[in-house]
């Protein structure tokens, strides 16, 4: 007997299917809010990045405040950092399809992963006023991956994004109290994104109910990249011999992510799609947000130093995202985000045990730009509290090593999200994270 499907006006529109990129570019395994990565210094990690734009003796100032390069001394500095991020996210909840029937499939397993994030820095004095530097770091990135047949497969399977910055920096020392600095940035952003597509819902009306939701799953993927360019400006002020105040601004960077969209469609329904959902080039305009940090570093005595950091990220510019396809039969897809701007606060310090060993600790609070109305399985983000510990060992006047560890207590990410094919996923993501960083610095 033929099944009949009552007409649902939104189900008629293939244009309503926002493809993977539109949902995924806001995802995260990053350890700052949204998909921002702060992990670029093991030394800073050990104190939760308190004083990051003002703390001395760390070559990562090439990106964290290029003005402070003028205060590194009269030797060249090379530093290599490796931060290993372990992030866990597990879904607890349920869902329904367009007809209100339970979504089939598992809870998706652990969508998190363990991933290395490298950074390298070089700084060199030109004279007693000028210094130059270069660096490679990863300011934005995430990756999540859920089981193929999970209940939220129509929202997300694999989500991977990475922005790599090449920075070329300079600083100028106005006098003993003030320094200014700047950098030019070449940023390469790449993305790889997949999800299941519920062709049963898309074709339910055209087939008059011969197909129903969850009865004809397909697959979609997009892989692309782009280069963009931006800048950093920083300032360092030393009002007293014991105090250092730093400010660092990192510009937004515009991208047009271009690549290949691929689709796997059950062979028996391909003729019903009218030339849609075939492999095609695709692109989407995407901008990494600007952010600014203000830091204070205070030397209490020859053993104890304390720092503060306040950072602001302009996530509210992330309003929506539109994917354009080269295939003229494939409609553009538009997704709304409406993210909020975020603040990051940290306090921490160093305690020098002796000439060789330094201990560090810090705490931080980091707000999420997402909320229940905008959170998706690709963005299982929640407010975070950082607890950090670290240590440094100075082997000689030229060589030192640092290590830092952070545990992140992440608030559950409540979700009530409707997919492009009108399935609804409700519940929460249980999240947690750890970061271990190590670095070596050599002066020559």
In short:
This protein has 444 residues and is mainly beta.
List the helices and strands and how they pair.
Blueprint: H1 20-24, H2 42-45, H3 61-64, E1 77-96, E2 113-125, E3 130-145, E4 158-173, E5 178-198, H4 199-202, E6 217-240, E7 243-250, E8 253-264, E9 280-288, E10 291-299, E11 304-313, E12 320-325, E13 333-336, E14 342-352, E15 357-366, E16 384-394, E17 399-410, E18 413-418, E19 424-443
Antiparallel strand pairs: 1-2, 1-19, 2-3, 3-4, 4-5, 5-6, 6-7, 6-8, 7-10, 8-9, 9-12, 10-11, 11-14, 12-13, 14-15, 15-16, 16-17, 17-19, 18-19
Rg from C-alpha positions?
24 Å
- According to CATH, what is the class? Mainly Beta
CATH superfamily: Outer membrane protein transport protein (OMPP1/FadL/TodX)
Largest sheet: 14 strands, antiparallel, barrel
Given as residue ranges, the uncertain stretches (5+ residues, pLDDT < 50) are 1-31
The computed structural class is: mainly beta
Beta-strand content estimate: over 45%
Quote the distance from N terminus to C terminus. 82 Å
Helix content: under 10%
What is the count of β-strands?
19
Number of helices in the DSSP assignment: 4
The coarse silhouette is elongated
Named CATH topology: Porin
| CATH architecture assignment | Beta Barrel
Q: Write down the domain tally.
A: 1
What strand order characterises the main sheet?
1-2-3-4-5-6-7-10-11-14-15-16-17-19
Mean pLDDT across residues: 89
Order of helices and strands: HHHEEEEEHEEEEEEEEEEEEEE
């Amino acid at each position: 007997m033929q099944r009949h499907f009552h007409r649902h006006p939104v189900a008629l529109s293939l244009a309503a299917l926002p493809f993977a990129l539109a949902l995924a570019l806001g995802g995260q395994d990053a350890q700052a809010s949204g998909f921002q990565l702060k992990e670029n210094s093991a030394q800073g990690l050990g104190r939760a990045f308190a004083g990051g734009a003002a703390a001395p003796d760390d070559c990562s100032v090439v990106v964290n405040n290029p003005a402070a390069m003028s205060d590194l001394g009269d030797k060249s500095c090379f530093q290599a950092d490796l931060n290993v991020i372990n992030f866990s996210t597990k879904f607890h909840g349920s869902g329904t399809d367009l007809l209100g029937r339970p979504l089939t499939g598992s809870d998706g397993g652990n969508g998190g992963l363990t991933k290395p994030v490298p950074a390298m820095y070089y700084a060199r004095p030109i004279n007693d006023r000028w210094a130059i530097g270069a660096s490679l770091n990863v300011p934005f990135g995430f990756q999540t991956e859920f089981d193929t047949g999970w209940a939220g497969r129509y929202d997300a399977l694999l989500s991977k994004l990475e922005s790599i910055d090449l920075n070329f920096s300079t600083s100028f020392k106005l006098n003993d109290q003030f320094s200014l600095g700047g950098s030019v940035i070449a940023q390469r952003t790449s993305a790889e994104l997949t999800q299941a597509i519920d062709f049963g819902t898309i074709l339910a009306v055209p087939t008059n109910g011969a197909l129903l939701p969850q009865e004809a799953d397909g697959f979609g993927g997009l892989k692309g990249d782009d280069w963009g360019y931006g800048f950093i400006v920083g300032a360092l002020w030393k009002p007293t011999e014991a105090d250092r105040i730093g400010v660092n601004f990192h510009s937004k960077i515009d991208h047009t992510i271009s690549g290949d969209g691929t689709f796997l469609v059950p062979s028996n329904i391909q003729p019903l799609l009218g030339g849609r959902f075939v492999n095609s080039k695709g692109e989407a305009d995407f901008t990494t947000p600007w952010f600014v940090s203000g830091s204070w570093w205070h030397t209490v005595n020859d053993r104890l130093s304390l720092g503060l950091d306040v950072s602001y990220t302009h996530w509210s510019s992330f309003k929506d995202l539109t994917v354009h396809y080269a295939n003229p039969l494939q409609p553009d897809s538009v997704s709304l985000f409406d993210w909020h701007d975020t603040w990051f606060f940290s306090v921490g310090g160093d305690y020098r045990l002796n000439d060789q060993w330094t201990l560090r600790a810090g705490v931080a609070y980091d707000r999420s730009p997402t909320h229940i109305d905008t959170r998706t399985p690709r963005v299982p983000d929640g407010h975070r509290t950082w607890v950090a510990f670290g240590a440094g060992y100075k082997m000689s006047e030229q060589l030192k090593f640092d290590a830092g560890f952070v545990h992140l207590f992440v608030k559950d990410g409540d979700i009530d999200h409707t997919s492009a094919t009108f399935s609804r996923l409700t519940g929460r993501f249980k999240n947690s994270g750890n970061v271990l960083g190590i670095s070596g610095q050599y002066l020559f």
